[in-house]
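MODEL INPUT / OUTPUT PAIR
PAIR INDEX: 1
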Amino acid sequence: MSDDLAESTVVVILDQKDEEVVGFDFVSLPEANKVSGIWNLEPGAHFMYIKTKEEEERRLGEFIYLKKGEIRVYRRSEANEGPLFKQVEEYSNQTYKESIIMGHLKNKMSKIPQNLSQLWSNITDCINSELIVKLRPINKVIKSQTVGQQIFEQCGSEMDKRNKKDIRNATIRVELSDTEDDESKTLEEYKQIANNLRGFRKTIDFEELKEKQESVSPKRNFQMDESVEEDYNPICYSDIPARDSRINRFKEITPEMLTSMHMDTSYVLESVSENYEANRDGYKAQEFKNKYMYVLGELQYSFILFLLCFNFESLEHYKKLLRAFCNAESTIIKNQELVLRFLNTLKYHVEIWDEEHDVYQKDDFLTHSLGSLREIIVDNEKDLEYCRNEYKQLDNSFKLKFGISLDDLDAINNNYVQ
């Protein structure tokens, strides 16, 4: 076996169904079984999913974690319930690796363009195997969390603004090849996926839906989670504390201390990280020496699942964690490794974000969160000198995306801009 083949990280998916499209990260494979696997994957977290040709917006998938040089062989499950893919253990080893890739599947193994592969790695570098095991739903399947069909039948089809943009098909379907990348073709593919990802946006006004639902059925108390499918299994995200528990330890506390403890959300990061470190619910994570990397991993995880699955539970969790990171002043000052990784992650999120997102709208979570982050960095310029370049890159990406700099957010958040 050649060194390149021995070090390749490989996934093979057998028994693909004719009525489905199989996808991997940002790439959708061609028709069923034309491409059976990918052999140039980067080690780390990957999202493997299916979507039907008739209803492509309903994407179902699960995260897997691959080690360098590992091969995984899966079969598409025949059953409609339970896990989507079943690993074929007898083929998932190095003994069969060369025979699979260079044997009967030689012409069905393909590569992902390097630029797409690198982009995926950049936004998943804190999603490790421990985090995947902890967060995944009971049945392992992650699905689109859509607004209930009954509501739309009652409120009118014009309410489903998702039809205006194919946001849940942000992936790109390419004819993968096992030959060397054509750089010009790869660049065009990267541009296409970047353009498709710009469709990522918050397009449904739940307040408007709530008003419509109440007018149709006033006796029923509408809740957001009633609008999803009955068989929806929630993702096991960490609980976000509403307040700093340390407040209860003080016999006497001044108004200034109380305000400071409410504004500095380091307690949120501390609480979530302890959820991984303290063996709660019989689970303990040990890989990351910096416990806050698990919290950053949840931020990356929730972003991807809203991006690829249009999962509203993930969007709400992303908003909460983003606010917590951007207001965690004491943690930002003390934890250099975390800040550098966070700023890098946030830079890619901004670049992927929809350029039509209205940063001037009232109480916009992105504007408020980034405005708070800017204020902390400006107020602690000397202590945070080490992250100046990373912050500048984030500012440049924000400026290119929205036409304003992070310095302008203070005026927006204080209603100076009309």
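PAIR INDEX: 2
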Amino acid sequence: MFRKQLKRKQLNLNVKTEELNSRKFRKRKQPSEKLNSKDLSTESDVSAQGDNVDSVRKVIIGEEDIVEEDAFGEDLIKKNLIIPGLLGCRTVRKAAALDEDTSIRKEHANLLEQNSFAELRTLPDVCPEFSWDKLHIKSQIIENVKEKSKLLNSGKSALQEELLIIASNYHDIYFPEETFENIEAIQFVYCVHAINHVIKARLKVLHHNSKLSKRVDVPEEFRDQGLVRPKVLILLPFKESAKRVVKMLSYILSGEKDNIANKKRFIDEYTGNEIIMPEKNPKPADYQLLFSGNTDDNFRIGLSVTRKWLKLYEDFYSSDIIIASPLGLRMLIGAENEKNRDFDFLSSIEILIMDQSQVFVMQNWEHVIHIMNHMHLQPTDSHGTDLSRVRMWALNGCTKYYMQSLIFSSHALPEISAFFTTKFLNYAGKVMVTNPVKTGSICQVAVHAPQVFHEVSTNSVLSAVDDRFEAFVSDILPQFKDPSMKHTLIFIPSYFDFVRLRNYFKKQEMKFVHICEYTEDFKKGKDIQEDSDIDRSINVIYTKYDIIQLASIVGSERATKMLASDKSVHMFMAD
């Protein structure tokens, strides 16, 4: 029904339609020209990500700071630059000019807009001097923001300041160095950015409403909305994480007044259900910090923002911000041919925030991919949308090029890196922190044991799994079949590889025990035995596609040398 309405709207607008493969994004002929109100909203319209747009199209960086690499990802990403900054080494991917031939293709007809939507942005070579005034934070929250910043840092924080500057320019960010020491500062950054984004969009709509009340028609410059209301999506792993983010959002919005609607219900549902940490043989400190509080990973909640109140448990289509776990959204989105599916609320997401992303990989990374595959699709229903107020680039199906993504994790993982480089097409470009690992975790090993690394030759990522398995069962495993090698532990990161090896052992009628996350606790205690008198050795199997994980163990420099070496076996010994 809504699609028919949208088609009629296209006809009423009297625009021509044609296949996108014969259409290219338009840009201005002269980069020095200024944007008019039809091309881009005013400074307060952050939703269009077009405020304070620099007309210069090239990243100005000293030649000594540039390291160019092969272009990869979507065609919109053309340059890969590594530049220094307060965050350390930042890999910057610059968006290509939007009038070049890109990979954009659509089967259905589109509205053709004669004006450009936004100029391409520039990525700064160095972080400019920090100033709250340059961040364009709205006056109603700026004092709360400054006060919270002082409470968090007791002074200046270089990390917080640079992240705020980059985020406020709407560049995509991938920061894989989140720790329990800086996580609160990072949450502060993206909460400030999210609230400020929503407030700017809200004030613009209210301002236009007052002007339109005196008019009969709706001019083009009053297009200020998306296809649906939700603008910000925050993905978090646990309810405890969601509780902390809601508290942060509330403080930024209303200070110590803590104006939260439905607060009691929220506290009841998002507290409790805590894991009891054992006093005997205590868990590591990072384990206790990660799994503190409510560890339920199935939740979703809608938030709407007013002048001084944060309203919780709003219907998604009446919400400005959605906070959810990947599992919580996956259950709502459902699968193909399922009844009561709903994913229209993802049609106009303008800021995607993923915090503690390394946990998503351990939970189920497929949920995150499934969510991303259902973002920015054409809604199946109008949901009360006034099409005359919808931005032209949203009607054209170009919202994905205006969405900013902020990804934070404690480790650099290939799943997240590939996701960041291929799934996000923000026209403002990307900033990816890529600091080299100096020593690696191998230097923290206190046990005097040889650590042997075996490189497996492979030709592609797809064949790497099979090649690694064949190398293990044919070259490595026979060395440990001797009765004297009975104390052997095999660790397998992937559950699918675990099942494959377990089935192989059963087929070979080998004597072994196995445990995984589904093994009952009493059986774990029976299967695991400790023997402090045995000689220990460690064998690691890797391919050239495991460079990120290898670097985190032995360090970036050593990992590079190992992959470039003619030898396939390397041994390290702790002092």
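PAIR 2 NOTE: The chain has a mean pLDDT of 79.
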